Amino acid sequence: MNKYLEDLIKLSKYDTSISQFEPKIENQKAKLATFVETAEAIKVGINSTYLEIDDLKSKRTKNNIHLSELKTKLDSIAKKNKDVTNEKELKALQLEEEIAKEQVSFANEEIERLDKLTAAKEEKLKEFQEKLKVEEEDIKEIRVVVEDTIAQINNERNEVYAKRSELLSQFDNKILTFYEKIKRWAKDTAVVPVKKQACYGCFMKINDKTYAEVLRGEEIVNCLHCGRILYKGEEETVTTEA
């Protein structure tokens, strides 16, 4: 095989490997981000529940104050009853007392309702806190795994970069410029194999003359359809040897 073509294939494979490292790293970060997002959602739930509990307790306090006011009112009515001079005043005081007692009953029921809601919210808060604890423990473990994996990926990437740099140090500048020009639009498919007499970049069938040139591998051959650099795929190698 033509040495320049051989170098182009190696360079293309290095570039393809390099472009795949970042998605691998992002994939690892995404794994951690999923757990972090879950933990953040739980924290939002905890904060919201705290606010709901505070609101319920505030309402309970207001009802307690109202009860105290009603007690004072009932005491006042009881004192006034001693000084009643006629039936009209007595009936007015009895009505006022009845209304106050109904309000006391309603306030006590409301306090009982608020206490039940508060207890339910506090139980929910406890569940949230337990979930958050478990989630944060998982995050610690996953963070270690993710950081180790990313470090390994970076090491592999550095190795590929080193090999690529070594290859480039002995690369023909004209050939490199030619490759970079194609790579600008073809990305990681600047150099592709030919399989079943088709370019594996545009997947168009190449003519017999071009196909024969690719099989010989003596020159750098471009696809007449898309312009990518072609080389003999494994299937063609087996077929040719057979």
From TrEMBL:
Keywords: Coiled coil. Residues 67-145 form a coiled coil. Residues 11-183 form the CT398-like coiled coil hairpin domain. It comes from the Bacteria. Pfam families: CT398_CC, Zn_ribbon_9. Residues 198-230 form the C4-type zinc ribbon domain. The keyword Transmembrane does not apply. InterPro entries: CT398_CC_hairpin, Oxidative_Scav/Glycosyltrans, Zf-RING_7. This is Zinc ribbon domain-containing protein (DUF164 domain).
